[in-house]
Amino acid sequence: MKVHDLMTTDIITVGRDASLKEAARRMIEADVSGLLVTDENGQLEGVITESDFVKAEAGRRANKRARLLRWFNQDDVMPSAERLVKDVMTREVVTAPPFADHAEVARLMQKAGVKRIPIVEGTRPVGIVSRSDIMRAFARSDADIITEITDHVIAKVLWIDPRRVRVQSADGNVRLDGKLETKSDATLLEDLVKRVDGVVSLEAHLTWEIDNTKLEMVTPPPKPGTRPNW
């Protein structure tokens, strides 16, 4: 599944020259824990999150939205208006294009240790995808998984008679039973099923009529005394 099918397109941004107080207000009103920082042309320049606010206030360890709200409402501990987003924002941002695979983005999140990734076209943000968005791709019913494998992978992609394969799924754990025409069909089917969204594991019990992986085209040796035709 591509992330453009999962991402949130209603993104909230803030300018790099906005005050921290303005950024905090937007985060609280939108009930989000971070904002994308963009320039006057809408190009992504960075992000600002609650952790950036925490780092900006030496000695403070609040990292929950409720604490940010208290921080925002207490004028005596609020940083001065001169503190700007650009002073504390994170400039090195992990991004992904709209047509990236959700599994690839999940790996990016894990590697970078982040909970969400901006989706960009070039350098312009068009959405944002979170861990919960990614998890939706895996939270598919067994009926949906079986239907996609049977009707799409087997019938439409591989052009195999669906009656040849029995497909079962229990909580995303798929089992295939059947006899196909060739070993390469069985191998390809297993590989494609593993890529289906929602498939957690695969147990394949497939046999075949022809092991076409062992068939070789053999050129007969030249007759004695003949010269190769270069």
Can you characterise this structure?
By secondary structure, the protein is an alpha/beta fold. It folds into two domains: 3-137, CBS-domain (Roll); 142-210, 2-Layer Sandwich (Histidine-containing Protein, Chain: A), CATH 3.30.1340. 34% of the residues lie in helices and 23% in strands. The strands form three sheets. The chain has a three-stranded mixed sheet. Strands 6-7-8 form a three-stranded mixed sheet, with helices on one face. The protein has a two-stranded antiparallel sheet with strand order 4-5. Strand 6 and strand 7 (173-182) form a beta hairpin. Helix 1 (20-30) packs across helix 3. The longest helix has 16 residues, at 142-157. The chain is elongated.
Give the key terms.
230 residues; alpha/beta; CBS-domain; Histidine-containing Protein, Chain: A; 2 domains; 8 helices; 8 strands
- The rounded distance between the terminal residues' Cα atoms is 50 Å
- Give me the count of strands: 8
Structural class: alpha/beta
How much of the polypeptide forms β-strand, as a percent range?
A: 15-25%
What is the strand and helix layout of this fold?
Blueprint: E1 13-15, H1 20-30, E2 34-38, E3 44-49, H2 50-56, H3 65-73, H4 85-88, H5 102-112, E4 116-121, E5 124-130, H6 131-138, H7 142-157, E6 165-170, E7 173-182, H8 183-194, E8 201-210
Parallel strand pairs: 1-2, 7-8
Antiparallel strand pairs: 2-3, 4-5, 6-7
Helix pairs in contact: 1-3
In short:
With 230 residues, the protein is α/β, with parallel strands linked by helices. The protein has helices at 20-30, 50-56, 65-73, 85-88, 102-112, 131-138, 142-157, 183-194; strands at 13-15, 34-38, 44-49, 116-121, 124-130, 165-170, 173-182, 201-210.
